[in-house]
Design brief:
600 residues, mainly alpha, two-stranded antiparallel ribbon, two-stranded antiparallel sheet, 24 helices, amino acid transmembrane transporter activity, Cationic amino acid transporter C-terminal domain-containing protein, membrane, CAT_C
Length: 600
């Protein structure tokens, strides 16, 4: 099983590798991608459902808590995107920090996420266009869905055409498609700002009837408000599309963290403002769950506002569709570069400098699904890929900080005068003798220092990180499963909590590895509050994964098992690391770098 854990070399400025993709994106392009991919049409419906069933007038607080939880993953993405600015996003980070097997499963799960997500978004355009034309029956023929009696399915030709149009746009070039997405996103944001401004005016004029209720601000209690946060958390999914374009950013160390952070901040602010207005105009129990925003305006005599709101919802779907198709060809390209997929997917067009073949395959697959299937029932499968990616990214941050990979795969043959050996003249550099270390790796904590030394440090820290993952799973599983007997329930929660607390305390007492400073590109964003922040991120994502439901997990399991079979029979044998040998990083540096790099 060694092939399952082999890891590729981290990106480094010392490798001097030139990207084949066009470096055209700046901070404003990234914000457009992030906001456009995140704010879909769901917000136009989600506010009504969550307010009625979970949060009540406290809907804005639910969005705030969910935004803070998504921000934890955003911090982790920001650091890894700066250190490893190559295409592939979570797949790329997992390959470097966790190994080939985990990376393959993450990449394979993301392929499912983006394909089904794009198809589901495309099929949502027609229902949102219907109110503009006066209902589904009044839609023009080329916009309406058609029923095929022979095979009893409802096809959506307009959804398929829309997917193909977006695919063609993405093939023109990253800058061209990003500019168009920015324009479409701006229209969507303007529609939401109209809701905030016009709704705020009506609210101040009418006295905010939705907040003057005898049930108070938390009609479902704090538990209901937190349950609402878990539901609206998925409204923030999409910012990870920013990290997938890392290889096409002009200044990734500066722009990627700003793009991720600004996208989440803007989305959270817009969500909260819209929530404050909607639940203030109409009591939460009277909100229409299907058309919450337009119906709230209709109550106050502004039926015409529905046209603006539905136009905003359509632009939101188109922007989200572009954000859904954009990352997948880059993930396929990264997997093909590593030999896990056929080289067909890593072919870069010489004129547009984008993976055109991978984009076309992605678009065709999404178009077929959008045309022929009602994919809303499979929407839960989209969340699995996202949450798995978020969890692996947080785990990668812990590994990077405490036990960064210290062996580099060497694949190419070297000349005799540059051969790497383990003789005395090329032995690894002994930094403990040649350079002073102001911050030793082993903590001076009186208790930890007795049991942790240079010989067992990496092994103990690795096992501690594994215990943290186990503790998060046990705790969230026990907390979510109400069928256990009370003493079993509390016992499992106690075991999971103890493992988490032990892991957090141990990692807090052991100093982070000094090699992290030279891991990948330096000078970018550094994730704060490690290990607390990544551990909290792992815990939150584990809870959401556990609560996706058995039916969703059965469907995803079939997809993952299929991917595992493909990996065993193709990816494993064609991997670029198949014949690699691993040498200590210091030994490779000493062999291939000039001596001046070691002079202080």
């Amino acid at each position: 099983m060694k092939f399952f854990t082999r890891r590729k070399q981290v990106d480094s400025a010392r490798k001097n590798t030139k990207s084949l993709l066009a470096k055209e994106l700046n901070i404003f392009h990234l914000i457009g991608i992030g906001v456009g991919s995140t704010i879909g049409a769901g917000v136009y419906v989600l506010v009504g459902t969550v307010a009625r069933e979970h949060s009540g007038p406290a809907l804005a607080i639910s969005f705030l808590i969910a935004g803070l939880a998504a921000g934890l993953s955003g911090f982790c993405y920001a650091e890894l995107a700066c250190r490893c600015p190559s295409a592939g996003s979570a797949y790329h980070y997992s390959y470097i920090c966790l190994g080939e097997g985990v990376a393959w499963l993450i990449g394979w799960a993301l392929v499912l996420e983006y394909t089904i997500g794009s198809a589901a978004v495309a099929r949502g355009v027609t229902p949102n266009l219907a109110p503009i034309f006066g209902g589904l029956d009044n839609l023009p023929f080329f916009l309406s869905r058609q029923h095929i009696p022979g095979i009893d399915i409802i096809v959506d030709p307009f959804a398929a055409i829309l997917v193909l149009l977006v695919t063609g746009l993405l093939c023109l070039g990253i800058k061209e498609s990003t500019v168009v997405q920015g324009i479409v996103t701006s229209v969507n944001v303007c529609a939401l700002l109209f809701v905030v401004v016009a709704g705020g005016y009506i609210g101040f004029k009418s006295g905010w009837a939705g907040y003057e209720l005898p049930t108070g601000y938390f009609p479902f209690g704090v538990d209901g408000m937190l349950a609402g946060s878990a539901t609206v958390f998925f409204a923030y999914v999409g910012f990870d599309a920013v990290s997938s374009t890392a290889e096409e950013v002009r200044n990734p160390q500066r722009d990627l963290p700003l793009g991720i952070g600004a996208s989440l901040f803007l989305c959270c602010g817009i969500y909260m403002l819209v929530s404050i207005v909607v639940v203030g105009l109409v009591p939460y129990y009277a909100i229409d769950p299907d058309t919450p925003i337009s119906s709230a305006f209709a109550v106050h005599g502004m039926q015409w506002a529905a046209y603006i709101i539905n136009a905003g919802a359509c632009t939101a779907l188109i922007s989200a569709l572009m954000g859904g198709i954009l990352p997948q060809p880059r993930i396929l390209m990264a997997m093909a570069r590593d030999g896990l997929l056929p080289p067909f997917f890593c072919d870069i067009n010489k004129h547009t400098l984008v993976p055109v073949k991978g984009t076309i395959v992605t678009g065709l697959a999404a178009a077929v699904l959008a045309f022929s299937m009602e994919v809303s029932e499979l929407a839960g499968m989209v969340s699995v890929g996202t949450l798995l990616a978020f969890t692996m990214v947080a785990l990668s941050v812990l590994i990077l900080r405490y036990i960064p990979p210290n062996k580099i795969p060497v694949i190419e043959d070297v000349n005799e005068d540059e051969s790497v050996s383990t003789s005395e003249d090329t032995k690894p550099l002994d930094v403990t003798q040649d350079f002073p270390i102001d911050h030793p790796l082993i903590s001076s904590h009186p208790v930890i220092g007795k049991y942790v030394n240079e010989g067992n440090r990496r092994r103990l820290v690795g096992r501690t990180i594994a215990l943290i993952c186990l503790g998060a799973f046990v705790l969230t599983f026990a907390a979510s499963c109400l069928s256990f007997l009370s003493y079993v329930h509390f016992a499992l929660c106690g075991v999971g909590g103890i493992l988490l607390v032990f892991g957090f305390v141990f990692l807090s007492c052991v100093d982070q590895d000094e090699a992290r400073h030279d891991f990948g590109y330096s000078g970018g964003f550094i994730c704060p509050f490690v290990p607390l922040l990544p551990i909290t991120c792992i815990l939150i994502n584990s809870y959401l994964l556990i609560n996706l439901g058995l039916e969703t997990w059965l469907r995803v399991s079939i997809w993952l098992v299929t991917g595992l079979v493909i990996y065993v029979f193709y990816g494993r044998t064609h991997s670029s690391l198949k014949d690699a040998i691993y040498l200590p990083a210091s030994q490779v540096d000493q062999t291939y770098e000039t001596p001046r790099n070691y002079l202080a």
